[in-house]
Design a protein that fits this description.
The complex is a heterodimer of chains A (about 675) and B (about 120).
Chain A (H helix, E strand, L loop, with lengths): L2 H7 L6 H23 L5 H21 L2 H18 L7 H22 L10 H13 L19 E10 L1 H5 L4 H11 E8 L17 E8 L3 H7 L7 E12 L7 H8 L6 H5 L12 H25 L8 H25 E3 L1 H4 L2 H12 L3 E6 L4 E3 H22 L3 H6 L6 E10 L2 E8 L6 H10 L11 H5 L23 H10 L3 E7 L3 E9 L4 E9 L2 E6 L3 E5 L6 E4 L3 E6 L2 E7 H4 L13 E6 L5 E6 L1 E9 L3 H4 L6 E6 L5 E5 L1 H22 L1
Parallel strand pairs in A: 6-8, 13-22, 17-19
Antiparallel strand pairs in A: 1-3, 1-4, 2-3, 5-7, 8-9, 9-11, 10-11, 12-13, 12-20, 14-18, 15-16, 16-17, 18-19, 21-22
Chain B lengths: L3 E5 L3 H13 L3 E5 L2 H8 L6 E5 L7 H9 L9 E6 L3 H10 L3 E5 L3 H11 L2
Parallel strand pairs in B: 1-2, 1-3, 3-4, 4-5
Helix pairs in contact in B: 2-3
Classes of the chains: A alpha+beta (about 675), B alpha/beta (about 120).
Chain lengths: ~675, ~120
């Protein structure tokens, strides 16, 4: 039967989304707790948490009628229960089986989510192994639930029901009067009270049960319906149900109709389902609509900036209310913008959770031992960015495992633990999201990288490159240090593609490495692609924006601090450190600009690749939040420019791309160096 | 006045389902994620019914029931436990701890409302 039809009839269909979101979290928790089990640092709570995760997945699956999911998780849950109770030992092979089962469980969950049916034999081997273990376990509880065929009774029957509650029944908050009310719904009821056991008043215990009742019930309902009334108290009372007289004459006002109405499941009642659905906790909105909202808010922010700028020319004592109003508008516009951006934000957990499996699968293929540790999964980032992050991240993880982590024997020989560790971390840092992939493998072999780059003509022979520059060579197109071509780390795709993907998201990637100790890839991504806080600067008659997050400080240097360095351009001595300078008027060929940094301003900026750069400009004009308009969409990509914006005065200003400004400078200097090398 | 129900489950799906179904049936529903959270919520007033899952982190359902039954303020509150078909032993354990009744997962909205009305009319 197509699941879609099933869903329409399911009264809980509206919670489907919540369920699958929760499943993702539970699978994630299952995964990380299993990792602890693998690593041998599991405590009792770990086992409980593993059990709970599977238990909750199963519980929800039942509500939505995902039978395959229920069946699989039931077997898994049963085994986990045995392990929890110590009846099955969590040996290495059992843990491996649990890992495979959790992967299969994830597959079944995603199939259910996408309304797909798993093939008939899917995970049959896993189920068989789970069942084998269960059969071997002592005291295996056998599911003895046998469906009881309802006994059909036609016509009315008179029952005599003897009911004497025990004290426990009252203690458990079962109210005898409520049971009477239930019975009355089944048919005509007469009640006799048996007070024989009530002691003298002085010896009465207020919380003890002394009364007993005898009910006479005429009903067309089956005996099971009567049993059901006493379902919760059966063990806490003396209960007798006897048929006194069968086949009573049908009374015209017989409660039969009433009984039928009760017995008739309401689920079949169309009216119930036809009720308008109440608003739920989440609503589905077309992403296009959100994008339009983001755009509109962007336009509004621009207009608001313009108003603010115009109002700054008004005398505040003459228009106090207007100016106050514009300030309030600025505040609201900013909050509105943040709220709109928050709609698009999602935790990175959704992609982080996929990575342990990537590591496990690949480690098995490569014959390596590795585990993955993730932190900061709750960090939120724009949905568009998240969706496009999966491929680069997967590639980086595979790369770390393929090229970074050594085989177990090599690691042991080097005095490292056999099992390598890959650390995946996310954090929000000054308006950007930083994602780090680090491993404790052998790190980048700089001599090998440099030799290869020279052999390929990517670096002129004899060029002096810093360690950082050598490490970054691996991002050059078609660069591979693997001795033989491996299709594992990226199906023939290199780190250059990763870098391109990341850059297209407005992000940057850099690498730090220590030979023998491991590598760390650092991805820095904007929280959102739509707005940034900018510093407005002027060069000649042109206006540019520098992202505020990149700026460390600005200063007017003394002539003695500027040093020309051959092959490196001018550098600025700043508290004992040399910072290369870049002249914007030279880069963008602007006339009438201040060419002497000592008369203009030097803005010290930091790019993610840890390099500092001094940008020489004429003047700082002010700070403003700007809405980023893509140059690629509206014009063409320009090196050193990440986008454009419209200022309050209606003029267009270009936004500088600090990292690429520096890269371009480095490239230009390398050309100079190789030029000189050729001349010598 | 609407009857107040406290629904305790570590699964958001379950909490949402129970809370939505019972709110629609006219109950006032409060939720908690585990036994400890439930006790904190109970500290804030009178409740007419507690519906609790058994398997929960921090404090499980059985411990919650024992706590409620030994508290002066809430000892008389009916408690329904959420169980599955397969854990018959759990049902007995819940009963022994002081549960009023049980609700077997998966359940239909009607079954839930009917059971709740049975112990909390």
């Amino acid at each position: 039967m197509p699941i879609g039809q099933d869903q329409a009839a399911n009264p809980f269909a509206q919670f489907r989304k919540t369920y699958f979101e929760e499943c993702a979290e539970l699978l994630d928790a299952l995964q990380s707790h299993l990792e602890r089990l693998v690593n041998g640092n599991a405590d009792e709570e770990t086992l409980h948490a593993i059990f709970r995760a599977v238990h909750s997945i199963k519980g929800g699956a039942g509500a939505f009628g995902f039978d395959g999911l229920v069946a699989f998780s039931h077997v898994l849950e049963s085994l986990l229960d045995q392990i929890r109770d110590g009846k099955v030992a969590a040996t290495h092979s059992v843990i491996q089986l649990l890992l495979r089962a959790s992967d299969a469980l994830a597959d079944i969950v995603s199939a259910a989510r996408d309304d797909r049916t798993m093939s008939a034999g899917f995970a049959a081997d896993i189920v068989a192994s789970l069942e084998d273990l269960l059969l071997g376990a002592p005291d295996q509880p056998i599911d003895t639930t046998v469906p009881v065929a309802p006994v059909q009774v036609s016509g009315e029957v008179r029952y005599r029901i003897g009911f004497t509650p025990h004290t426990e029944m009252l203690r458990n908050a079962n109210e005898p009067l409520l049971l009477v009310r239930q019975l009355r719904r089944l048919g005509g009821l007469t009640i006799e009270v048996d007070t024989a056991r009530v002691p003298p008043l002085a010896t009465i215990e207020p919380e003890a049960a002394y009364l007993g009742w005898v009910y006479t019930l005429d009903t067309g309902a089956p005996q099971s319906a009567i049993r059901e009334v006493f379902e919760f108290v059966e063990d806490d009372c003396d209960l007798t149900i006897d048929i006194v007289a069968a086949q009573l004459a049908t009374n015209p006002t017989a409660p039969v109709t009433c009984t039928q109405a009760i017995a008739q499941p309401l689920v079949k009642n169309g009216e119930i389902n036809a009720q308008p659905a109440s608003p739920t906790q989440s609503i589905r909105v077309d992403v296009d609509k959100v994008d339009r909202l983001v755009n509109l808010v962007g336009e509004m922010v621009i207009t608001q900036a313009m108003l603010t700028e115009q109002s700054s020319m008004l005398p505040i004592d003459q228009y106090p209310a207007l100016i106050q109003g514009i300030e309030a508008l600025a505040q609201s516009a900013r909050e509105l913008q943040e709220s709109v951006m928050a709609i698009r934000a999602q935790p990175v957990k959704s992609i982080f959770a996929r990575m342990p499996r990537v590591v496990r699968d690949l480690a098995a293929t490569l014959g390596k031992e590795a585990r993955i540790v993730t932190t900061g999964e709750a960090t939120e980032i724009d949905k568009t960015v998240i969706e496009q992050l999966n491929d680069p991240l997967t590639h980086m993880i595979r790369n770390a495992l393929d090229h970074g982590i050594e085989p177990p024997e090599v690691r042991t020989a080097a005095g490292k633990p056999r099992q390598g560790t890959i650390h995946l971390a996310a954090a929000q840092r000054s308006g950007r999201i930083v994602i780090e992939v680090s491993d404790d493998g052998h790190g980048i072999d700089r001599a090998k990288v440099l030799a290869k780059a020279q052999a390929r003509g990517l670096v002129p022979p004899g060029a002096a490159l810093s360690d950082e520059e050598i490490d970054n060579l691996i991002f050059l197109p078609a660069f591979s240090t693997a001795d033989k071509v491996s299709n594992i780390s990226g199906r023939g795709v290199g780190m250059d593609v990763v870098k391109r993907n990341v850059q297209s998201l407005g992000g940057r990637i850099s690498v730090q490495s220590r030979l023998g100790a491991g590598s760390r890839f650092i991805l820095s991504l904007p929280l959102t692609l739509a707005v940034l806080d900018g510093m407005i600067i002027s060069v000649g008659k042109e206006t540019y924006i520098i992202p505020l997050t990149a700026i460390i400080e600005s200063l007017r240097p003394k002539p003695a601090d500027i040093h020309p360095v051959v092959g490196r351009g001018d550098v600025l001595a700043l508290r004992g450190e040399y910072v290369p300078l870049t002249y914007l008027h030279k880069r963008f060929s602007i006339a009438d600009a201040i060419s002497d940094p000592c008369r203009g301003i030097v803005i010290i900026v930091q790019s993610e690749s840890a390099g500092r750069l001094g940008v020489v400009v004429d003047e700082l004009l002010g700070q403003q939040q700007v809405v980023v308009k893509s140059l690629e969409v509206n014009y063409d990509p320009v090196e050193g420019i990440s986008g454009a914006t419209i200022l309050g005065n209606g003029r267009v200003a270009l936004i500088l791309d600090i990292a690429r400004l520096r890269d371009a400078d480095c490239a230009a200097r390398q050309e100079q160096v190789s030029e000189m090398a050729r001349l010598h | 006045m609407a009857k107040r129900i406290l629904a305790v489950d570590d699964s958001k799906t379950m909490r949402d389902m129970v809370s939505f179904t019972l709110s629609k049936a006219g109950f006032e529903v409060n939720v908690a994620e585990d036994g400890k959270g439930a006790l904190a919520v109970l500290g804030g007033g009178k409740f007419d019914l507690i519906i609790t899952d058994l398997n929960m982190p921090v404090m499980d359902g059985i411990t919650l029931i024992k706590n409620v039954r030994s508290s002066a303020q809430h000892r008389g509150v009916p408690i329904l436990i959420l169980t599955t078909e397969s854990d018959g032993a759990k049902k007995a354990e819940g009963k022994a701890a002081g549960a009023t009744g049980w609700l077997v997962k998966p359940f239909s909205p009607e079954k839930l409302v009917e059971l709740v009305q049975r112990v909390c009319p």
